[in-house]
Amino acid sequence: MAGAFVWNFFVPPPSGDLPKLVEYWFYVGNHAVNHHPDFLATHLHKNLDPNPKFVYVNFGVFKTDGFISGRDRPEYMKRVMMEARKIKEDAKGLMGGFVEAAVTTGKTPYPYERPSTARFIVSNFTVPDDVSSEDFEANWRDWAGVSLLEKEVSPDMGYAYSALYRRVTPHGPYRYVVRSEFTGLHDRHEAGFGLVGRDYFGSDALASKKIEADATLCSVVIDMQKY
After folding, report:
1. DSSP assignment of 33-87, as one string?
2. Residue 45: C-alpha distances to residues 49, 71, 85, 170, 216 (Å)
3. How many CA within 13 A on the CB side of residue 71?
4. What is the pLDDT of residue 137?
């Protein structure tokens, strides 16, 4: 069962050449699949926005926190990262280690293999230090816009769940990430973008706490699983 997660947000590289960025990611991911004992799965999400803040978002799943803490990250992984840098020198991924804090269904969405038609809304939240984890997680469905999303979705959108992830490593761009899964948006991207743009961002609840939020509609372009 999964115990730790990695979120990587890849910014558009200055040199462009997105295929090389995917090759860079695949090189690192393939070595994790083949060598790291804790690895379970990874999804490389492609941002479907034509003008993305992040071109790809990676979601990695591990059995324990050994990888994200660096405790069980062997020397060869450092060599892998150095070798991957030769493939794409200007690759920049904002990475953090996370735990699953809550799921709307009450159960973790494991296993993580998904059909190519699945679509995801990935939301990220920069939360000030004076907002406690207890406070955010007690109100996460409202503050993260999940309550509003669940009111706005129609049955044919195939809304499955939303899961909240809390960062536990000192590094990382966001304190919380929410991933919402849909099975009926693969041919209805405009409806998906409508959900991304729903008006909870900038709401009084977030503004009063000085919480910054953003979201994007994604598809998974590479799905790696270890059985």
Report:
1. HHH-TTEEEEEEEEE--SS-S-SEEEEEEESSTHHHHSTT--HHHHHHHHHHHHH
2. 12, 27, 20, 24, 10
3. 8
4. 96
Phi first, then psi: give them for residue 86, nearest 5 degrees: -70, -25
Torsion over CA: 77, 2, 137, 201 (sign): positive
The token duo for 203 is 């709401």
For the record, the structure tokens of 100 come out as 């699953």
Identify the H or E element spanning 171.
none
Could you report the per-residue pLDDT of 73-96, keeping only the tens digit for each?
Answer: 667 777 877 787 777 777 777 888
Distance between CA atoms of residues 120 and 217, nearest Å:
6
Tens-place pLDDT, residues 31-66: 766 677 888 888 999 999 988 889 999 998 988 877
Q: Where are the alpha helices (DSSP H) in the chain?
A: 18-35, 66-69, 75-87, 133-138, 140-143, 146-152, 189-196, 204-209
- Rounded Cα gap, residues 59 and 8, in angstroms: 7
pLDDT at 180 over 90: yes
Q: Is the pLDDT of residue 189 over 80?
A: yes
